[in-house]
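Q: What changes when adenosine-5'-triphosphate is included in the input?
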Amino acid sequence: MGETKVAKASGSSSEYKDKDKPTAIRFSNITAGKAVADAVRTSLGPRGMDKMIQAGNGEVTITNDGATILKQMEVLHPAAKMLVELSKAQDIEAGDGTTTVVVIAGSLLEAAQKLLLKGIHPTAISESYQKAARKCSEILESMSTPVDLKDKNSLCQSASTSLCSKVVSQYSNVLGPLCVEAVMSVYDPIDNSVDMKDIKMIKKLGSTIEDCEMIDGLVLDCRSGSGGPSKIEKAKIGLIQFCISPPKTDMENQVVVSDYTQMDRVLQEERAYILNIVKAIKKAGCNVLLVQKSILRDALSDLALHFLAKMKIMVVKDVEREDIEFICKTLSCKPIASLDHFTSDMLASADLVEEVPTGTSKVIKVTGIAKKGRTVSVIVRGSNKLVLEEAERSIHDALCVIRCLVKKRAVIAGGGAPEMEMALKLSQFANTLTGMEQYCFRAFADALEIIPFTLAENAGLNPIATVTELRNRHANNEKTAGINVRKGAITNILEENVLQPLLVSTSAVQLAAETVRSIMKIDDICLVWEIGKKEKPLEVNEGRICAAPPIRPKRVLAEGRVTSHAEEDKTGEMACR
Ligand SMILES: Nc1ncnc2c1ncn2[C@@H]1O[C@H](COP(=O)(O)OP(=O)(O)OP(=O)(O)O)[C@@H](O)[C@H]1O
Ligand SMILES: [Mg+2]
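A: The predicted holo structure follows.
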């Protein structure tokens, strides 16, 4: 890859030709992108493997979620970062399909590389990819079936398909209906929207995932004040943002009291001050007090707790600042910022507030709320921290699947059926085209076969035999033929109830094609040196920019093998050559 500089000494214009550099940059970007896709490929599908990721601080995560795997990796190459962003974009748009989108993008990049080697111009590839992606959406829509939000069975099946590929798959019969119920409880029919912030998940170590429950009310991961009641019926709840403790001096100041009588006066004052606040709270009719955490001083002094307990007011301490909005929405009340505003009309009513033991600690449950807002709380249980966190991520994916069905009410068969159908229809459509476009459409179609190929590979089936049979079945107009991983054969995947939202597949193809298009359009990487920063943003080798190393995970323990830095450096060197 030598650079060609042609400088014409004679003539008015001097020409600078560097034909190889854009190609080298493009290939380097493609290599980096493919490396990211390969890193998550083994996690695809119900028989996909999980990754154990160890962060620099020693924290370990076990996950199957594509977006989480990529988020945790330390990716250096800018083009590889685009694939990480792609997965994030899919997570925001659809919530599921974050592995699929990256695998498709990797395959499209590989196809583009072959097209580039054939001499097709990157702009032609980019434009054809855009048209092909649009055509794919049409094909997917034509094979989708509308779904009614009242048809809970279909919704549960879609949630179960998403949960099937996770560690928690054996509990999909419990979690599926729970997710449907949760989303339908917060669904806003007027805006036709679901705000995921209205579903609060509380992780509690202990018990098994089977014991996950949805509470039609409010659950707070807080403790009640010691000495006071821990169960109140017919509750009048007040949420305060002010402190019930003696005021503090400014940071730098100190008050030294050496006289005993003066000290006594200070204590008397403090007692009177706190008692005044507690009496005002009691007078307003409040019997459950939620107190926001304070960083300036103690939100509640011991004396305040003592008085509140005496007056039979249940205290819920340490309510987080970020939970205030959710609590207000659930209880249909407003937070009270000062004692002057503590009036009975600011209080919320509920049938029961109680502290219940859950696992190793306790939670506060509020049920029978009088004017309950559109929110739900879900208690996630798990036998260890890693399973618990993965369960939360899996439930989040399943919730997003139902949200997708609310946004676009259509489902398609899973198990590689949509990708194979797109591949087939797209190559048939390619026959009607001419020139380079036909080449590009064909390449795009073939690239989509990576999904059924990977699903078969991860399920331990023969990928080539499986993909060819699947292709034949689709050619015989069996649109719903898919890979049945349980039977290890190609069957009508609808009989297995493997359904997924249309939006997940359309957005995966669209977003993947868009990212590949933008990578195709890059012909140079400019290094901008930050003044005072010694580190090089990218490695430069003899004037050439190379993808060394394309990705440098902190420490990915893939397939039981620790990738050492020495190994990574070798890969980097190879990429430079
Ligand atoms: N029971 C099943 N049989 C066959 N294929 C299935 C089954 N369940 C799911 N799939 C397929 O597995 C793929 C989804 O796998 P997976 O959930 O691991 O990845 P993802 O959804 O792309 O990413 P993530 O869930 O990490 O965001 C889809 O193509 C889906 O059709
Ligand atoms: Mg999934």
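Observations recorded in class: The pocket of magnesium ion (ligand 2) is lined by residues 96, 162, 165, 397 (CB under 6 Å).
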